[in-house]
Amino acid sequence: MSQEGLPVHKITINDADMQQLLNDVWSNEFAPVKLELGGKQYEARLRIRGGHTRNYQKKSYEIHYGQGQILHWNAEFDDPSMIRNALSFHFFNKIQVPAPRTRHIWLEWNGQPHGVYLEIESVDRKFFLRRGIGSRSLIYAVNDNANFSLIDEDTEQRKVSLFSGYRLMRGNNYTRLRLVRFIRGINRPPKWPLRVYLARRLDVRNYLKWLAGAVLTGNYDGFEQNYALYEHRASGKYRIIPWDYEGTWGRNCYGKVCSSGLVSIRGYNTLTSKVLAYRACRILYRNLLRRLLAGKFTWTAIKPAVTAMYAKLTPAIQDDFTRKWPFETFQQEPELIRNYIKERRAIIRAELRTWTE
């Protein structure tokens, strides 16, 4: 443990390898490093990860070591609280949508302090094994073409491939083909028996819980990317897992304070619109939102997690010279999150009262 009270992880990398990473921050090539965790040393590989954050002075990283073990270290550079991802995944787990585990760490880089990071569990085969979930595939949604539509948002033309926007992490060509068929199936003409098809290929309850989580936390970027799909082994149905929830709880993915009403109660993407086209699904979803408003999505329910994270983080943030936000802003963030929850609850309640069809 460090003097800041967080677990200390250490990276040793030679200058030439580090410079190679920095020469092309958009490359996904790995560099060899030495990794120290809990006093044990490992030979490891490290790469820069993320989207727009790759251009930031403080990078985020993906580390592979041991027997297929993977860690994600997020700088959370745009989030002055450093807890929005962690708090969001905590909330998803509370509403029974499996989400990555997280913890804050203190990183040393070639013997020098590198500041506070959020360590995020990788969504991979071991993610499912730890939870006793049977899965036969895993697909990452990596850009906004993962919107379940036939149309490319950039070109406004039919997509060259319906697998565009996705990255196959586990499976084979039939895995790709099944997802392409699923996307094509949900976009067939109205006479197609879509409700039966959705019931057979999509875990609707899991999807609606995920939708509620994204809507309540306010992740505008979470509907057309930043999620993972897997096929549940026993049922053969698609289920969904959240990923990258830094832009939530009252700030967007660039750290700007945003309206608590930014995200529609009905969410976004083609699959969501298809599911909510059915009255039974709308009723199920609205009842789910009401239950969450009555219990888990309240400041009383969420405050203990915020308090616990801040108790561990505060001494380290005071010593972290790598942050772009002043310490005073960090201290004010719990109040901003509390206000967001209050405003978001009022917005959702008002929309539920008018959404009766």
Automatic annotation (TrEMBL):
Pfam families registered for this protein in UniProt: CotH
Assigned keywords, A-Z: Capsid protein, Virion
Name this protein carries in UniProt: Inner spore coat protein H
Taxonomic path: Bacteria, Bacillati, Bacillota, Bacilli, Bacillales
